[in-house]
Design a protein that fits this description.
single chain; 601 residues; three-stranded antiparallel sheet
């Protein structure tokens, strides 16, 4: 996210996005968006954003990837987008089937790289407008929101609101059954009223799918604009449910006699609160009768207003005091705290996910047995760190992982006992000690200690702060405050990135250095996502420097190029967008001096 904010500053679009957000917040409509979408700055920002995506290397039907755009100059990229939009006709969408955990397949639609660039241009302008009007407790595919925030909201409603009945609605093939006509009306109602923009979006929706023909409904999963459009569709449902209770204002004066909730309870309204992540949502209620009313009301609303059907077999009402409900591969149940205490949300890992984790763990164990290399050891560590980081917000996370480890421990011991040393970790890296401090025995593979599966503790799951948004100055300050908490996520990405011809000392010390510096560049002090991290040898290897911890420095990739570059043109090109001041320049010059290079001017 910080990378996105910095890129918007480079192209002077931050104020534009802020203005769109503020105007949308007060209910303004937008009739002249096309010029913003096709502006040079917005197109170049779109290119810069998509070239860092992992999906940028995935080819479309034309076989082209981001490498094709990288060979073009800035003005050529701008011209490509503008010319294609004059009489826009999207290329065929590549169909790819992705297996799901339940042995079914999810159909992905992958547009060509040119169409993805165009969709990113549209997304950047439409997102601030829609963000201002989306429901507060919708968490999927939105900036700075996550599955943990959705889970925290459910926990809050159970713990504080004492709402123990949940309505689970499963929409049948949601992404494949979105009604195009209805979606276009929803975009109009949300404030996007530039007819040229709407006409192009309509063409995107009707793009031909390779081997299947022209689509008459649905949005392709895999398109950059699809998540935003899907939120537009279900925002109507969010707001409709909220107006039934949460946002309803009684037409009588209740302020002198009772609070708002007490006044609402005197009415015949249905008490209920929706929490949604993409097409997965729950409505929490106080009693069974209310839950039944909500179930049928939502089913009819989806069918009559949004032209969507529900899966009867997967949709149900659950009493959380008696049974568990699943949400985003977590389980949720309202358990009593103490003998006669109040009920609180107890969360754990779903059975399907446990089974999947055990299968993935055994696959990696077999790979280590076959090739006990540093790369495979780091693959295991990245896997463990990833699942621990995701499930650490569950209250039963330690018990669940203990059980998972018990189930795979025999397989792990039998397969690795002759390939690696088994014992209590000693002389571990800084990062290992920071996150895993118990004395659990584990294996050491190629001088790398494998992270233990059992050593994980639950962490408090906090609700989302609604003023955290990239489209206001105050919201951006909140984002910068929270970025340091993302270090574990970025370390997980670093572990999965392959660096050829590097020894275990370098790989371990690189992770440890990044962790010790809380993910910040050691020259600019800016938080670095994994894709921007470079590891600089303070004393270069050709001058006798090694891979020891004290000789490594975590820096931004452009800063690293500045440290080593001898070409004045490259130095000027790098210095301009980074916008670094005198203090970082002094540090860079200090590093360059150790490398026997001239100072920057």
């Amino acid at each position: 996210m910080q990378t996105r904010l910095r890129y918007a500053d480079y192209y002077n679009l931050t104020s534009t996005f802020d203005e769109l957000y503020e105007r949308s917040k007060i209910g303004e409509n937008f009739t002249r968006l096309y010029d913003l979408i096709t502006s040079r700055e917005n197109i170049l920002l779109a290119y810069r954003n998509i070239k860092r995506n992992s999906g940028a290397k995935t080819p479309g039907t034309d076989g082209k990837t981001i490498s094709y755009l990288k060979n073009l100059k800035d003005e050529q990229i701008v011209g490509l987008v503008r010319n294609k939009l004059i009489s826009y006709k999207p290329d065929k969408v590549r169909r790819k089937m992705i297996p799901k955990p339940n042995e079914e397949f999810r159909p992905l639609g992958i547009p060509t790289i040119e169409d993805r660039l165009i969709q990113q241009c549209f997304k950047q302008i439409l997102e601030p407008i829609t963000e201002a009007r989306f429901y507060n407790h919708s968490y999927g595919f939105r900036p700075m929101r996550s599955t943990h925030h959705a889970l925290a909201r459910v926990q809050y409603l159970i713990n504080k609101g004492k709402l123990h009945y949940v309505v689970d609605i499963d929409i049948k093939g949601f992404f494949d059954n979105i009604n195009h006509t209805k979606l276009m009306k929803q975009l109009w109602n949300i404030g996007i009223r530039d007819r040229k923009v709407l006409a192009i979006i309509s063409k995107m929706l009707k793009a031909e799918i390779q081997g299947e023909g022209i689509s008459i409904k649905g949005v392709p999963q895999g398109g950059i604009l699809s998540p935003l459009l899907s939120n537009v569709v279900l925002n109507d449902l969010d707001q409709w449910i909220a107006r039934q209770w949460e946002k309803f204002e009684p037409d009588f004066n209740y302020h002198n006699i009772c609070n708002r909730n007490a006044a609402l309870k005197r009415t015949n309204l249905k008490e209920g609160y929706i929490v949604r992540y993409a097409d997965d949502f729950k409505i929490l209620c106080r009693d069974y009768q209310t839950a039944v009313k909500w179930f049928h009301a939502v089913r009819l609303y989806l069918k009559d207003r949004l032209k969507l059907e529900i899966s009867e077999g997967k949709s149900q009402i659950t009493n959380l005091r008696k049974r568990r409900s699943e949400f985003l591969v977590f389980t949720i149940k309202a358990e009593r705290k103490g003998k006669n205490g109040r009920r609180v949300a107890q969360t754990g890992i779903s059975e399907k996910k446990k089974k999947q984790i055990k299968q993935q763990a055994k696959t990696i164990i077999k790979a280590i047995q076959k090739e006990p290399t540093t790369q495979n050891a780091l693959k295991w560590n990245g896997f463990i760190l990833g699942i621990h980081n995701y499930f650490k917000k569950a209250t039963l996370v330690n018990l669940d992982f203990n059980r998972i480890y018990y189930d795979i421990s025999r397989t792990m011991y039998n397969r690795l006992r002759q390939k690696a040393y088994y014992g209590k970790p000693i002389n571990t890296t800084y990062f290992f000690r920071k996150f895993y401090q118990s004395n659990h025995k584990t294996f050491r593979v190629a001088k790398t200690w494998l992270y233990p599966m059992t050593d994980v503790q639950t962490r408090n799951n906090l609700c989302f702060k609604q003023d955290t948004t990239p489209y206001t100055p105050r919201g951006r300050m909140e984002i910068y405050k929270r970025l340091s908490k993302s270090v574990a996520i970025e370390i997980n990405k670093l572990m999965k990135s392959y660096i050829p011809d590097r020894n275990v000392e370098y790989l371990d010390n690189r992770i440890s250095r990044y962790s010790m510096k809380s993910g910040k560049c050691e020259i600019t002090g800016i938080f670095l996502p994994a894709e921007d991290v470079h590891c600089h040898h303070y004393r270069p290897r050709h001058l006798g420097g090694g891979d020891e911890f004290d000789n490594l420095r975590i820096v931004h990739r452009d800063i690293h190029r500045l440290i080593h570059s001898k070409n004045k043109q490259i130095i000027n090109n790098l210095t301009t967008p980074i916008q670094i001041d005198e203090k970082p320049i002094k540090k860079i010059n200090q590093y360059r001096k150790v490398c026997n290079l001239e100072k920057l001017q």
